Every structure is written in C-alpha cells, then in structure tokens.
Amino acid sequence: MKLQDLYYFRQLAETRSFTEAAEAFYISQPSISIALKRLEDEFNTRLISRDRSSKSVQLTETGELLYKRSQEIIDLIDKTKKDLHDMETREVHLGFLPTIGGHFLPSIMPHLSDYLPSLKLVEEESSDMMYDMVKTNQISSAIVGSDVPEFKEKWLTQIPIAVREMHVWVAPHHPLAKYKRLNARMLKETSFVTLAKGYTHQRMFDKWAKANAIDQSRVQFTNEIQTANSMIASGMSAGLMIDLLVRDRADLVKLELTHAPKFYISLLVNTSSEVTSDQKAFNDKLIKVIKELFSGETP
Asked: Does the model's pTM come out above 0.85?
C-alpha cells in the first residue's frame, strides 16, 4: 500500500469531491481515482458510493472507518517525522501567543540561553488553539491564557505565571472616559467590540455580558486585536480586555471594572507526550525557570 494514497483518500473524504481533492495536491482527477482503486483492492471493500447526477461522494461504512484510521496513521507519521527531525537537529519547541509572549519572554529567555541555538518558537494568536496543539502533541509546552485558574486534565502540568484583571478600554473622548471605575450597570447600553469566537477573551466577554444583561446586539467581533483597538480608539465602541492586549496606545483610556473577570496565564506542559530527550530537558528547565521567576505573581 502506498502511504500517499491515504493522504489522497483523507482529502477526498473531507472534500467529498474528486476535483477538490486533486486540486489540493496539484494532480489530475484520474490520479485520485487510481489511488482509491488501490486502497479498495488492498482492503477488499468499497470505500465510497457516488451519485452520478449530483457528482457527490459519500463514504461507505468501511470508508468511514478507513477515514478515521487514516487520520490517526497520518498524524502518527507526521509526528514521527517531526520527532526524527528534532533528534537530528536537537530542535526544541515552545508555543506562545505574541501578545502574552511579548511581555513574559524577555524575562524567561535569558535563563534558557543554552537552548537558544536550537529553540523554535511556535506562535499562535488564540489560546484555545494553542491548548489544542499541546493536547494533540503538536508541541509539548506552551504559554497560554485561560478563563479558569486551573486545568484538571491528568496529562497536563500547569505552572501559573500571572493573573490579570480585565479592564474597560475607551477613547479619551468617549462618554465613559470621565469615570475611573465602572460597574456593569453603567455599561448596559454601551457598544462593545471583542475578539471573535475561538479566542479566550471572547468567551470571557460573553460570559460576563450574559451575567450582567449586556445588550448583545451592540457587540461587534473581530479576529484582530489591532482592529479591536482601532475601533475602540474611534470612540464608537468600548473594549473589555487585559492590559497586555493594549500596549503603547496613548489613544486609549483604561478604566477599572468592579467584579472584573480574571485572565490566568500559565505554562502548560503535556507530560504524557513522547518527546525527545532534548525537549524533555528543555521542558524541565522551563518549568524550573518559571517557578522561580513568577512564584510571587499568582495568589
């Protein structure tokens, strides 16, 4: 069996289209058909059924099983390739969010100088996506933010770094700018901008807004932090964010919020992940450094 055939089949199963599957690999449609035929001969079963009138592709019961297993096989092969590469190059990885990492990495990196030549930093804008990367062994350690103080997963080692309260941010000419402290009752008719679904800040905002009967029809969403900050600076919207997302902005005013949600920043290490000896040594060193540097910043 050709391994590449599994890649082709997975793409076909996900797109349900011979045309789209072929385009994804820059090959002809007959190449996808030939790969499918090889797999069906290998496993002695039909993997798909086709509706000629609509040109749609449906997986058979055995096709569904092979799709599930092909994902597992491909993920394992990709991870093996990465691990072999890391063993050859002695490469180690650390995941982080640019907004959070930009604040904490300058304190952490000098203590990891032995690893700098082989360190690869993996950036991701969303803490939720970074958490998934740790969970699925794409990386074994990452600095992330969360709306809960403690993770319960047994495979996870969590080292607290800091706790940040969220603040209300407005333009200097916004009507709320004259206050130093706000409560939720004062914000019921305020227009807000927040990060879109998939970001921890959006989940925290949504929970706070629902708990305080904030008018959700006045909320706008964006995938970009800088876009959110620009909308706030225009005076049309307010924002609810931690200070690390709003740095070097003289055109924004920070206001205290009574009973503000808290944002928890931690190092997460997947201790059940199979990693190279270099990565394990790096993770152990990282845990030690963060404990020493930030033990006084969390309750």
From this structure: no
